[in-house]
Each structure stands twice: as C-alpha cells, then as structure tokens.
C-alpha cells in the first residue's frame, strides 16, 4: 500500500474531526512533510516526537512512515 493511501485511510477513519471541529486542509499542520507519498509503505512508526532516535529506530525496523503527534520544528 502506498503512503498516500495510508494517509487517506487514516483521514477517512478519523472523520477528519479534531476537538469536535472539522480539520481544515489549508490550515492544518497534519501533512506529509518529507518523502514520496507514492512510495510503498514498508512500516509505520508512531511517536509523540520524531526525535533523531525515533527516526533511527524506525529506519532500523524498516519503517518509512513516521506519524508524530508534535510538529518537527
């Protein structure tokens, strides 16, 4: 499954609702920041922060999609 398909599925499953309000695509910070959305997903890592150590662990485990709660910058 492609990364873009996984992101689409996550949005569909969540109903794109946050704190009872619809997520606005123009203003949300929830988006793919780096990488190719058409790449096949090899694994998903989920973390509060995408720290250097989280990125290293994800790479060691073969994950090429990291879903982080906090923004990168």
Feature tags:
29% helix, 73 residues, 2 helices, alpha+beta, single chain, two-stranded antiparallel ribbon, globular, two-stranded parallel ribbon
Overall geometry: globular
Counting helices, strands and paired strands, the structural category is alpha+beta
Number of helical stretches of at least 4 residues: 2
Mean of residue pLDDT? 87
What's the β-strand tally? 4
Main beta sheet strand tally, sense and closure:
2 strands, antiparallel
What would you note in describing this structure?
With 73 residues, the chain is α+β, with helices and mostly antiparallel strands. The protein contains two helices and four strands. It has helices spanning 3-14, 52-60, and strands at residues 17-18, 21-22, 44-47, 65-68. The protein has a two-stranded antiparallel ribbon with strand order 1-2. A two-stranded parallel sheet has the order 3-4. Strand 3, helix 2 (52-60) and strand 4 form a beta-alpha-beta unit. The relative contact order is 0.21.
